[in-house]
Amino acid sequence: MEAADLRRIFAANLRQLASRRRLSLNHLADRAGMNRASLYRLLGCEVSATLATVAKLADVLEVPPRVLIDERTVPTPPV
């Protein structure tokens, strides 16, 4: 699996999990103690998350960190 694939999966999982918990992306960034622009760069797959960032976001979303990079968390749309 390529790094770009992991970034795409991570971004999709973040969006889906935040939505399920009715958290806006701005609120997610605030609760994780991160800059909103940084979160949006992660969601745009422009940058990779550090392990510390993955842990903070997972904590806010109340999931184990591995869930954020699990391709099974968010169903992949058919091609």
Write the topology of this structure.
Blueprint: H1 3-20, H2 25-32, H3 36-43, H4 51-61
Helix pairs in contact: 2-3, 2-4
Characterization of the model:
It is a single chain. With 79 residues, the protein is mainly α. It contains 4 helices and no strands. The two termini are 18 Å apart. The mean pLDDT is 89.
What are the main properties of this structure?
0% strand, globular, mainly alpha
Provide a short characterization of the protein structure.
By secondary structure, the chain is mostly helical. The chain has helices at 3-20, 25-32, 36-43, 51-61. Helix 2 crosses helix 3 and helix 2 (25-32) packs across helix 4.
Percent strand equals: under 5%
Series of H and E elements:
HHHH
Helix content: 55-70%
What is the arithmetic mean of pLDDT?
89
The main pleated sheet reads as: none
* Structural class category: mainly alpha
* Low-confidence region ranges: none
Question: What's the shape?
Answer: globular
Radius of gyration, CA atoms, in whole angstroms: 12 Å
Total strand count, please? 0
Distance between the termini: 18 Å
Tally of separate helices: 4
